[in-house]
User: What shape does this take?
Amino acid sequence: MNSFQKISSLVVIWSVGNYAREYFPMLNEKYAPVAFGDNDAKKHATDLFGIPILSFEEIEARHPGCLYYIAADEINYLNVLNSLIEKGVTRSRIIIEEYKEYKSCLFLENYMCYENYSVDTEWSLQFCCANSDGSNKSPLVRGRDYEEAVYNFFAMRDRIIDELNSSSNFMPSPCLNCCMVNMGSWRTDREIRRFVLSYPGTCNFRCVYCCINDMINCNSNKINDINRLTEESLRFLKFLRDKHYINKHTHITINSGEILIHTMRDKILEALEDNPCFINSNISQYNEKLAKILSIKGNALKTSLDAGTPETFAKIKSVDLFDKVCQNLCRYASQTHVILQYIFLPGINDNERDIDGFIAILQKNEIKNVQIKSDMNNTLKLNKNTINMIIRLTHNAQKIGINISYVLSPFQKQQIENKLKALAKP
Ligand code: SF4
Ligand code: SF4
Assistant: This one.
């Protein structure tokens, strides 16, 4: 079947998580789903993008014989598939895309990252954002021009995956010891599903954890360099589109200081108009164009509040703009999907006042998705108090129907999982 041919039977997307949200435009075009389904009772009787979210029983009663599309990433795919089969759904009613089981990683399978921080180097591409788990360096490929860099990227990706699955260690893979490698069911098309574009920028905040702080105090020479690198990055994006290395369903993320104060802001926003995208912003400003792009289904605004009180906000961001940011959050959240982040900084924002203040903000603005992160400069074990505050935020947010996801190092994830398991015991 052509990958974008519409299926005539009724299709339900199971289940409602980040995958369904992110890939909705593609799924909608391909399947025109009649409903979403999920086991979580808190989501029932609500909707996503105007499509109802139903329980399994309701789906079977309203749409008998419907087909199910499993909206799950490769790590969770088999579990979700098996849970539907356990409910009595036959395989013939599940839309099976082509998968193969082998060792790989989410980034190798789906990502292309382009970092353009220097005016005079060769083109370089990566598979993941370096050191995302604190234990490894991202493999890097270079080329003398766009075409060569992309060719080398695909060749190296295939080589790494072959090496991960080979019993001989003749040429050890650069990903060999990375904790992100796992046995999974991977889609055989190996399409680039996410493109991350990073180039220098400036910012009006000075977050304590920010890795671009040294770029922030820009003189006019630096601004010229920033603009050149931005132009170049946007040209590369166009090249990838023109050559069909990415398509209109590829998710684009831009990492470059604060987009709303970039001198080329409008050009960058225009370049994002044709693709689903996550836009990172500190939302110290409200911008109509940004709000319009974000209101497109599948797009999302990612912003990091990290506090529930003005004092803590100012301590972390070095600006006294908590009220302004909260006002803008209210405006953006009323028109678009917002993912609100809380980066835990031990001794600064891991206290009850901030967590409770943050929960009140979530409630007031009807935010549905929260990402809990640790400072990527500190991927070591979390202390007891920070763990307790992560659990407090998780529990109180989940009580009001908010989805929580974690971006933590493997040790930290394990610590949180252990604590949640211990609390769940009667
Ligand atoms: S270094 Fe780790 S996260 Fe990056 S591509 Fe390799 S396996 Fe994936
Ligand atoms: S708002 Fe973002 S870009 Fe600006 S200083 Fe903070 S982390 Fe860095």
In short: The chain has three domains: 11-97, 104-187, 281-426. Confidence is low (pLDDT under 50) at residues 1-7, 131-136. The longest strand covers residues 338-344.
